[in-house]
Design a protein that fits this description.
alpha/beta; eight-stranded mixed β-sheet; Alpha-Beta Plaits; 3 domains
């Protein structure tokens, strides 16, 4: 039967609302999920799919050991920086980057206790001047939150650095912007609008530019490429320079990008999405490593390019389509396969430098699957409750329980069972119904069947079907009974008693009374679901059913309201058979003669 247009519109509205809700919720949850997933994929690829790099960064670290060997604080390490710049530039470093902030003052008034004539300012200035003809220099600048601008460096230093040519910014921002979970994944391009002055120049971009890779960078830092970083201690580089180890220094630095920064355990630590330090565990690492990994990304595969928001919307909407199709088990299997395929594809593309954030689709997919499964489960539960309320009016509570528990299964083949079949019919109802309006006929039948079916259920019987004003029931299936024949006869007697009460009510209402005939026969019958795959019913078929139907037809002829076969009388035993009157053998239409017995409430003293 076709659905009513209003029902189709309501269903379409529910489906549209479900799709929209799954998509919206997935998009809200996706960013946090994608961050965790991206970190997991970085870790997975570093462990199982290592990607070497062609051009790497040489990391020189200022560690606790260096600070323990010098007398001056780090801000006054002018002589060591100058010596380092001389050594690395002379060794052929292509670019030297300092993740350090140069002083704002000359410190002319400071005097070294061991070298009274030592000039801090001139020493560093001379080192800068000797370096620039040989190597590019890039120095970090940091933001002064109190003054709302980048901190200035001493004018002489700035003047020397401004002589650098070839479009490399000597002073570049060392700032990074973190995601809402404080981890640094994305390169701070101007479009992100996270840097104070939206500067396009960063320490990483200018190192890359000095190495011949100048472009407008945008995307995610590629934390999956290259091995874990190891650093050269600054003091070892200075010792090699003092000992004249020029060949060793050239092997370390010639043609390479050199990055200097602090690697102390408690200084300038940032949260990274991957463990990229070889000398310490965890992901809270010195900030110089972020610059190093960003430069490594730029000089090799480039930054990872994430797909835009439109893709996230599209993928979330595509995942929400799993709301459709009602087969839960199949849908869950498909959802698992789709999730695995999406994660695999995302990881493969990530290794190629493209990030397809899968969480929007995964979240909407599983939201759709689980919500639809919950909705379907609730509908099934409601439908079962509705069927229980409806079906319980036609079968006994025992049968209903077996149906609910799966004892009656439409997939099982029919089985031959010994049952007692009951047929009942209202006498002369056809002629009576011709005199009544259809509504009154239906109301009277419902009233009548409501009284007599309760008696069948009371004695453990199963109502098979209603045939006009007749009814077929059987006893002994699907629930077993100690004596189906006794239960059937007692039910038939109670049906007559109920009919007597109904007739009393009809007389009081001035309506015609009803007369009923009941036929009982016992024997084997095939019990099960009969019909097509589209329409079937739980019923009994066989000769036992046919005989019971023919016996009911003898009631009017023999003048007894209940007619039983000899098989019923025999199985009732002597006590039960004593209540019955033997009526001899009678021929049945389409069947050989059978012995019959009658039961009359008046003769039985009922």
């Amino acid at each position: 039967m076709a659905a009513h247009p209003s029902a189709r519109l309501a269903a379409a509205g529910i489906n549209a609302a479900a799709l929209a809700l799954c998509t919206l919720l997935a998009l809200l949850a996706a960013p946090a999920l994608d961050q965790r997933l991206l970190d997991a994929q970085f870790a997975l690829n570093r462990a199982w799919f290592p990607q070497p790099v062609q051009t790497d960064v040489v990391l020189v670290g200022i560690d606790e050991a260096f600070l323990d060997t010098v007398e001056e604080p780090l801000t006054l390490s002018h002589r060591y920086l100058a010596a380092f710049l001389d050594a690395t530039s002379e060794a052929g470093a292509r670019v030297i980057a300092l993740d350090l902030v140069l002083p704002e003052k000359r410190f002319d008034t400071l005097i070294s206790a061991h070298e009274p004539d030592f000039d801090f300012h001139r020493t560093l200035l001379a080192g800068l001047m000797r370096t620039l003809p040989r190597s590019k220099l890039v120095l970090a600048k940091v933001w002064d939150t109190e003054r709302s601008h980048y901190r200035d460096i001493q004018l002489d230093y700035a003047a020397v650095l401004n002589t650098q040519q070839d479009g490399v910014q000597a002073l570049a921002s060392a700032l990074f912007c973190s995601d809402d979970d404080t981890r640094i994944r994305r390169y701070p391009d101007p479009g992100w609008n996270c840097l104070p002055d939206r500067s396009p120049y960063t320490l990483s971009s200018e190192i890359s530019a000095a190495m011949g890779k100048r472009q407008q960078w945008s995307g995610l830092i590629n934390y999956q490429i290259g091995p874990a970083f190891r650093y050269l201690p600054l003091q070892e580089v200075l010792r090699l320079a003092e000992r004249g180890g020029k060949e060793q220094l050239r092997a370390m630095f010639a043609g390479k990008a050199v990055l200097v920064g602090t690697v102390q355990d408690d200084t300038d630590l940032l949260n990274l999405p991957a463990a990229i330090a070889a000398w310490r565990e965890g992901r809270r690492l010195p900030g110089v490593l972020v610059h190093a990994q960003a430069v490594r990304s730029m000089l090799n595969q480039g930054l990872i390019q994430p797909l835009g928001p439109a893709w996230a919307w599209g993928m979330a909407a595509a995942g929400a389509l799993f709301w459709f199709h009602a087969a839960v088990a199949r849908k869950v299997l498909l959802a698992m396969l789709a999730s695995a395929a999406l994660l695999a594809a995302s990881n493969i593309l990530l290794r190629q430098g493209l990030w397809i954030a899968p969480s929007a689709m995964l979240a909407s997919l599983w939201l759709a699957v689980l919500s639809r499964s919950a909705d379907q489960g609730w509908r099934n539960f409601s439908e079962k409750q509705r069927l229980r309320r409806t079906f319980s009016g036609y079968v006994s509570p025992q049968v209903m329980q077996q149906i609910v528990e799966g004892g009656v299964d439409a997939r099982k083949q029919g089985a031959k069972v010994e049952v007692c079949v009951l047929f009942s019919d209202i006498r002369n109802f056809t002629s009576m119904s011709e005199l009544l309006p259809a509504e009154q006929v239906v109301a009277l039948l419902n009233r009548y069947f409501g009284r007599i079916t309760s008696m069948v259920h009371k004695h453990g019987g199963t109502v098979d079907k209603f045939i006009g004003d007749g009814m077929m029931a059987f006893f002994g299936a699907p629930n077993e009974l100690p004596s189906p024949e006794k239960a059937a006869l007692e039910a038939a007697r109670d049906m007559l008693a109920e009919l007597a009460q109904l007739n009393a009510e009809l007389r009081a209402e001035g309506k015609a009374e009803l007369a009923m005939g009941i036929g009982l026969h016992s024997g084997p019958a095939v019990i099960g679901y009969i019909g097509s795959s589209h329409r079937h019913e739980y019923t009994a078929i066989g000769d036992t059913v046919n005989v019971a139907s023919r016996l009911e037809g003898l009631c009017k002829q023999l003048g007894y309201p209940i007619i039983c076969s000899g098989a019923v009388a025999e199985r009732l035993g002597p006590d039960g058979a004593a209540m019955l009157s033997p009526l001899g053998e009678h021929g049945l239409k389409g069947h050989s003669a059978v012995p019959v017995y009658g039961w009359d409430p008046q003769a039985a003293g009922a």
